[in-house]
Write a structure and sequence with these properties.
222 residues, mainly alpha, MetI-like fold, globular
């Protein structure tokens, strides 16, 4: 989930910035990078990261969620080991997801830039950063819907990625439950997934009101 939230934030900002600076080298490089990243499978990115940073450079561990010599606890030693082992799984998901968010936001922001209020603001020589903030804000609504759906399903984890890193997440738990026909466990996992999806959509309804003032004004008029 942290990887999804970080990729969503970075991807949307870069996509909107690329659309606003259309026709520049910045836009071409960002969009090209986003297209390449969005087409890379999670598991392939995971294997590349392991080969470079774990095997060749030896900077990071090849897998596991934490040092097997430690006992899970809230101690700083365990938390540091957990975060250290989480770097590569985090990057493998965040990098690929960022590319998809960049492409989506770039298209939405480019459409928003054709709106009448943007043209009017540009004719009035309104500060470009102010225009950019409005374009970003108005383009976020479809992306918020997307993040709600993705957060509702990301709880199942990236099963192949978790297996590559031997990372004990809900994805591996679900795969093991399916393999052993542990129906109570399968039902429990799907109950969590459905609950997470419902909560995510419930939160999105409030975010719509905060981001789009037209929703608040419409409610008052009624």
């Amino acid at each position: 989930m942290p990887a999804t939230l970080v990729s969503w934030t970075i991807g949307n900002y870069l996509g909107a910035r690329a659309a606003y600076r259309r026709g520049t080298l910045f836009e071409k490089s960002i969009v090209s990078t986003g297209i390449v990243l969005s087409q890379i499978p999670y598991y392939w990115m995971a294997m590349v990261l392991i080969y470079v940073f774990a095997i060749k450079l030896g900077w990071l561990p090849t897998g596991s969620a934490y040092d097997p010599t430690l006992t899970p606890s809230l101690s700083w030693t365990f938390l540091k080991s957990y975060l250290y082992h989480y770097i590569l799984p985090f990057l493998s998901i965040a990098l690929v997801s960022t590319g998809g968010w960049i492409i989506g936001m770039r298209v939405l922001a480019a459409m928003e830039l054709g709106s009448t209020y943007v043209t009017f603001a540009e004719r009035l020589n309104v500060n470009s950063e102010i225009i950019f903030r409005y374009v970003l804000r108005n383009s976020l609504l479809p992306q918020i819907t997307g993040i709600a759906i993705q957060l509702g399903t990301v709880m199942a984890g990236q099963i192949i990625t978790e297996q590559i890193f031997n990372y004990q997440g809900m994805g591996i738990l679900l795969a093991r439950a399916l393999g052993s026909r542990d129906y109570p466990m399968i039902q429990g996992i799907f109950l969590i997934l459905i609950g997470t999806l419902l909560i995510a959509n419930f939160i999105v309804e409030f975010l719509y009101v905060l981001i789009d003032p037209r929703i608040r004004l419409g409610a008052r008029e009624e």
